[in-house]
Amino acid sequence: MDIKQNGISVQDSHEVSKFHRRRSGPASDDELVPLALSSDSDIMDDHTPDSFQTPPDSPPRENGFTDGDSIYKEKISHVTDDAETRCGYGSCRPEVLQNCNNPKCLLMFLCFFCLAQGFVVNGINNVSTTSVERRFQLPSSRVGMISSSYDLSAAILGIFISFMGSGRKKAKWIAWASLTMAVGSFVMALPHFASGKYEWGQDIELTCFKEERTANCEGESYLQNYLYVLILGQLLHGLGGTTLYTVGVSLIDDSVPASSSPMYIGIMYAFATLGPALGYIIGGQLLELYVDFDTVPLSDIDITPEDPRWVGAWWVGFVIASMFFVLAAIPISLFGSELPTAKHVRETRVSQMHDDDGSSITTVIPSETRKLKDFKYLPRQVWQLLQSPPFLFITLAGATEGLTSSGFATFMPKFIQNQFGVTAGWAAMLTGFMAVPGAAGGQFFGGFLCKRLNLKVKGSIRMPIICSALALLASGIMWARCDYKNVSGVTTGYINTSNSALPELTSVCNQECKCHTELYEPVCDSQGLQYFSPCHAGCTTKSSDGKTFIDCACVSPNPLTNQTSVTMGKCVDNCNMLYVFIPFTFISIFLTFMPSPAAVSATLRCVHDSHRTLSLGLKWFIVRLLGTVPGPILFGTIIDSACVLWREKCNERASCWIYDNAQLSRNFFVMILGGKVLSCILFLCAHQLYKPPAEKSVTYEVRTNSVHTGTTIPNNMSHDT
């Protein structure tokens, strides 16, 4: 009697016949058991030779491979909720809430949380950079500390939270994280209510004043101390944010099959980047409102958003974000210990762990929720992760990307404002217009591409290599700028004076005026020459309209009126480089964020299942410690290094008034170029050092009264896309 099994003939005899069949693909559904319960053999008794056919419940196959998604869909149709996985509080778990007890609804609520997190941390906070500098008299390097404090908090607490939150009840961790961020946003708005009204210099004389001015060096010195209140708010933001992007991502990955996980994560990350875009747009509109609009009548405000002294309503966005976080916490807290689908995802998932030969012993903690005594397992698990070359190099590449992206995102509105001479509000809105289709679209498209191409680990690593190389080409747009060559005392000398070292605002024509740099009130003469203030132009009289100053000793006479006068405002510049900068920056943002879902998927797939949540925590710890923490501080420092004219009060530097645009472009380009080159090299190392799981043999023995048939099936997972 001949039996055909997958094209192999087995003779009926009284002797044991063994044959080997090679298969390059995932394991059959009999092998798809949790890793901790897996076995190298499976005994099948009481089968006749005729019954050794594909069983009726055998999983669907595509091109000879087990279709894990089909297994998942088949099993998920029989899901029944137990008490712990049902939505609700305590014993109150009504049936109507169970309609939302699925991955899609969880994703929707997490997306709203991501939206709010991005809105405040990477949107409102970055938009408010210039206003916070002006309001609290801070240099850019110290303002960069506010952004870095978010990542510092997330880095320090990330490993602790990812370890403790890697058990069940992840949704409760995320709900508390949202409430923590609500408190952080409220704390960041407190300095507005505690610091009093903003003094923009309405009582200071702008014209030439030949008597010595006495500055109040004590009245406003306390303002810089509010920096620490803002840092406290960002520390609370970091505590909530690291929970969202470690425990939250792991919760999504626990609840959907491996092939769908990148798509879900891509959608989640797309909303995370949509948040900053909304922050830039809404925050830009809020900056058009005067900072004290709630207490000062509009009729008493004599400056406009175009004035360098203008400070917008930076604090309103933080109040809005605080309400968003409270709204996000409510539905997330209703989810149970895990989703009903999580159990079946575990049963149908196939390992893609780096160099998995089945012999590695991992530390598995059987408790539902982690306790402090479980910390004894932490060093061993961290060491196991660091021994994985793909994980280590993907993480280091993420750190280099984080260094450049966090620094540039923090100061991009300020960069646009200074390089192209636009208002702070318009610069923020332009940044938002680029971030919406660029970052969000790149995240979504990257996740879609991973699912469409069914990328495994190596394929997921190739995507960042290609995208980083293309983004490197687009980074040359950093050289685009508008140069301001006609600012007296800064870029050019005063008339009728010998060329002296620049910048030098004091000249023969204004040396008796006792001018200062506490206020920046640019004025322009009829020849297109700009001056720092009417005082520096040597003007002694202000016209009745309040917009013109006359009798200016440093100004050339008007050929038509023979009058030496200036008008308030900067000189008009017809530079159009901004319209070149916008599309190329959009392309660069799109390419930078496109591989994010692939990189996260590769991180989750190349480590053991029990280490996935911890791997995200350790990854973000390294990324933040080496990348996003020093990034804003480093970029703030290189911005300050390009300053040519500081605001000085009581012989101390505060914020910068005017920058060297050429040096600023060069500094930004060098930083971005170096980061992209290094990330390409590190991703390439991860790609080359990744080893797919080794072959595992699963032996089947089919016994009858007269037939004993042994089958050895290699489980070869080495094929990758």
Describe the protein in words:
- The chain is α+β, with helices and mostly antiparallel strands.
- 48% of the residues lie in helices and 10% in strands.
- The protein is built from 18 helices and 15 strands.
- It has helices at residues 68-76, 103-127, 129-136, 140-164, 170-194, 227-255, 261-286, 316-333, 342-348, 378-386, 389-420, 424-453, 457-474, 578-593, 596-605, 612-628, 630-641, 661-689, and strands at residues 2-5, 8-11, 16-20, 41-44, 61-62, 65-66, 523-525, 530-531, 539-542, 548-552, 565-568, 643-649, 652-659, 696-703, 708-715.
- The protein has a 5-stranded antiparallel β-sheet, with no helix packed on it. A 4-stranded mixed β-sheet has the order 3-15-14-4, with no helix packed on it. The protein has a two-stranded antiparallel sheet with strand order 1-2.
- Helix 12 runs parallel beside helix 14 (578-593) and helix 13 (457-474) runs antiparallel to helix 18.
- The protein is elongated and about 90 Å long.
- The relative contact order is 0.16.
- The model is unreliable at 1-68, 357-367 and 696-721 (pLDDT under 50).
